[in-house]
């Protein structure tokens, strides 16, 4: 008869992701940088870059061959087409 704590669906999903550990490392680094340096006016542009690059690389590797990758490509193509069309119509 005890109360069960409902699991957060995002934490469940991210823990099954092949990039979950890298995501956690990046978020921890970013949160530490933000709370300890950025809000105090001290920041370094190189902070957390290594963590971000590892996480981004993992995402890219794990999106290959999936529909999401193709959707991102199509979205990029549409943006380029719209920009070209707007340049032509302004002439």
Strand content: under 5%
Query: Helix segment count?
Result: 4
Largest sheet: none
Q: What is the β-strand count?
A: 0
Helix percent band: 55-70%
Look at the helices and sheets and give the structural class: mainly alpha
Mean pLDDT figure: 75
Gyration radius (Cα, Å) is 20 Å
- Summarize the helix and strand pattern as letters: HHHH
Tally of separate domains? 1
Task: Provide the low-confidence segments as ranges.
Answer: 1-14
Shape: flat
Question: What distance lies between the first and last C-alpha atoms, to the nearest angstrom?
Answer: 72 Å
GO biological process, one term: phospholipid translocation
GO molecular function, one term: phosphatidic acid transfer activity
Pfam families: UPF0203 (PF05254)
Family: Belongs to the TRIAP1/MDM35 family.
Task: Write out key terms for the chains shown.
69% helix; flat; mainly alpha; disordered N terminus; 91 residues
How would you describe this protein?
Keywords: Disulfide bond. One of its GO terms (molecular function) is phosphatidic acid transfer activity. Belongs to the TRIAP1/MDM35 family. One of its GO terms (biological process) is phospholipid translocation. This is GCK domain-containing protein. By secondary structure, the chain is mainly alpha-helical. It has one domain (18-89). Helix content is 69%, strand content 0%. The protein contains 4 helices and no strands. The chain has helices at 9-16, 20-36, 49-63, 67-89. Helix 2 packs antiparallel against helix 3 (49-63). The longest helix is centred in the last third of the chain and has 23 residues, at 67-89. It is flat.
